[in-house]
Amino acid sequence: MTMCFMWGLGKAGLPLAMVIADSGQRVIGVDKDKIRVEMLNKGINPYREEKGVTKLLKKHINKNFYAITPEDYQKMHRNL
Predict the structure, then answer these.
(1) Going by DSSP bridges, is the β-strand pair 65-68/3-7 parallel, antiparallel, or unpaired?
(2) What confidence tens digit (pLDDT) does each residue in 31-67 have?
(3) Can you say whether residue 62 is alpha, beta or left, with left for phi > 0 and alpha for psi between -120 and 50 degrees?
């Protein structure tokens, strides 16, 4: 399984991350907004107008999609 990092989980990045996760790739989404990261990791879509994203997020959270902050990324990168 391939892993990709998506920097920025805004209105463009999050839907793209969901499509990539739905294709079977593992996606690590990085966003500086800690509240958004927390919401995503709970399966909550911060963009309610994006209905398809909600369905895909619930399907892939903690399976093919994980949201982290840049600080989490730095910690993870040091441990690789």
Answers:
(1) unpaired
(2) 999 999 999 999 999 998 888 999 999 999 999 999 9
(3) left
Residue 36 to residues 11, 14, 47, Cα–Cα distance (Å): 12, 11, 10
Phi-psi region of 69 (alpha: psi -120 to 50; beta: other; left: phi over 0): beta
Q: For residue 2, what pLDDT is reported?
A: 80
How many CB atoms are located within 10 Å of the residue 37 CB? 21
Q: Which has the closest alpha carbon to 57: 45, 75, 73?
A: 45
